[in-house]
Amino acid sequence: MTDSKLSSSRLSLIWFGAALSIAEIMTGTYFAPLGFSDGLLAIIIGHVIGCLLLFGAGLIGAREHMSSMQTVSTVFGNGGMKLFSILNVLQLIGWTGIMIYDGALGAVELWSLPFTAWTVIIGALIIVWLFIGIRNMGYINSIMGYGLGILCIYLLISLLQESSIHSQGIITDELTFTAALELSIAMPLSWLPLISDYTRLSKNPVAGTASSAIVYGVTSSVMYVLGLAAALYTNESNIAKVLLHAGLGFGGLIIIVFSTVTTTFMDALSAGISSESLQTKYSGRTIGIIVTVIGTIGASIYPMDNIIPFLYMIGSVFAPMIAILLTHYFLLRHCPHLDHGPSLYIICWASGTYMYHQFLDSNPFLGASLSTIVGTALATIATAYIISLISKKKKEI
């Protein structure tokens, strides 16, 4: 990527497209056991928390003109940057496969091509988007974004107007409010290792980052509510059948295919940007294309119906990472540094990952992500204090 800057409106459109996702709609269907009112509350609270974190992470990259993994290196060092780059590329390969799988699964219900054919079509369109590039989309991205948005809003209004929609949960699988809150936070959390790849190009760091986080948060919430309403109306998570019921045959196909493309394109592109921290032989676009091909093959071979464990895995890795990064940047950046400081922060992160899984089992009031972030932030402050004491002793010797 070159050094030319992106306006706040362009960044908003990018993140609007990122939130238009079948995966987000399908995640919203999991909230149905809570009923509409409680489900909506969990969606809103979770997205407010998640997008505040998203804003903080993006602001660091915007101010420092660094990609997401470059901001990580300021705390965890080059070794830590490589570790998180690998983990980020792996999660983005996973997301690419999941998104293509979900898109093909919905498309095959609306147009009777074989499932594998749809995975190839969607994968090919993502590669086309990679060749067009983030700055050269212009009117294409605008038309696609607004068109998809109008179709999704029409579908949501259609569902909410159904007289038979249930206000109470109707799907029998149990889901606590805390668990729903966790799922709501998880989606914006999954974008934390990516946002600075785009906000670093912002003309105005605060405005560009704020518009990115707000537009993503609002649009993602609508996608979740769309899934929730669909599940409460149909008592199932088959989005294609809901689209057909709303009279969106071809329009539904457009929603499924191009919402998948506009979101997954960002996953593949950011995988390429992260890979540049690991190697310089291949460009980010080339790696993005390779990631898309791998994701397409994976989607064609492996079933990817339940993404909840994957969301939890992402939370366990990146919730403590972002807690350390935000705490260090906004509270501790002027503290003394030591050569082994990054290693101590890696220990903090590993402790936070363990903490997350413990919180998942114990189901605390704040939820696993928020409890982990608070706990890891406190551990980071304690670690910085220890580093400060060691630094003082070294100066005294």
Structure characterization notes:
The structure is a single chain. By secondary structure, this protein is mostly helical. The protein has 2 domains: 8-305, Hydantoin permease (Orthogonal Bundle), CATH 1.10.4160; 307-397, no CATH class. It is built from 15 helices and no strands. Helix 7 (177-190) packs across helix 13 and helix 11 packs across helix 12 (284-301). It is globular. It starts with 7 loop residues before the first helix and ends with a helix. The relative contact order is 0.19. Mean pLDDT is 82; it is low at 166-172.
Task: Note the main attributes of this structure.
mainly alpha, 2 domains, 397 residues, Hydantoin permease, 15 helices, 78% helix
How is this structure best summarized?
Helix content is 78%, strand content 0%. The chain is an all-alpha fold and 397 residues long.
CATH level-1 class of the largest domain: Mainly Alpha
Q: Please write the string of helix (H) and strand (E) elements.
A: HHHHHHHHHHHHHHH
What number of domains?
A: 2
Helix content: over 70%
What's the N-to-C terminus distance? 47 Å
SSE blueprint and pairings:
Layout lengths: L7 H12 L2 H8 L5 H30 L3 H43 L4 H18 L6 H22 L16 H14 L5 H4 L5 H30 L4 H7 L3 H27 L8 H18 L6 H24 L9 H22 L4 H30 L1
